[in-house]
Amino acid sequence: MANPKKLQKLPRSFYSRDSLIVAPELLNKVLRCHDGRAGRIVEVEAYRSDDPAAHSYRGRTPRTEVMFGAPGHMYVYFTYGMHWCANAVCGPQGVGNAVLIRALQPIAGLDLMHAARPLAKNDRQLCNGPACLTQAMSITKLQNGVDLVSGDRYALVDDDVPPPERPVQTTRIGISKAMDYPWRWYVGESLYVSKK
């Protein structure tokens, strides 16, 4: 990873576009925590308000309020009664689009990640799934609504590693609606993807 002082936070304009555009462009960006933990994004899924699998599909609720808010914020939700998942809110405010961050390649602060995920047997298991990466990065409901652009605790940053020219594009994982939408992208050669 580049010198942390030279990392550039993604601007609000990056997130202000449709989630189907933002999602593949998030590949190889870096999710960074204030304590030095960082991981390169290697797998994402897009969700939109006209998508039956999206939380925003049924409209604005207390749970999805952040998803309908300003782009560039973190939308964190609880799933299966035990896991947190982290998303980047996209599109114009009021639309309800987001990109789920599904997997990271750990690149800094691995000792802290292992402490947060004691059951991980190796570095590959630290962040190879949406629930794994939130545990490794200590993301919970307390981070719901965090501003990734102007905040100082979590950020998505660019360290000059471009997205892959030909990311693998597939259907999404673990959903029961809109299962045929090819709105999942991952870095093909990555060993840290949740499922190929």
From TrEMBL:
Q: Which InterPro entries match?
A: Formyl_transferase-like_C_sf (IPR011034), MPG (IPR003180), MPG_sf (IPR036995)
Q: What is its EC number?
A: 3.2.2.-
Q: Which family does it belong to?
A: Belongs to the DNA glycosylase MPG family.
PANTHER family in the record, alphabetically?
Answer: DNA-3-METHYLADENINE GLYCOSYLASE
UniProt GO molecular function: alkylbase DNA N-glycosylase activity; DNA binding
Listed name of the protein: Putative 3-methyladenine DNA glycosylase
Q: Which organism is it from?
A: Dyella choica
Which UniProt keyword terms apply here? Answer: DNA damage, DNA repair, Glycosidase, Hydrolase
Q: What is any Pfam family matched here?
A: Pur_DNA_glyco
One GO term (biological process): base-excision repair
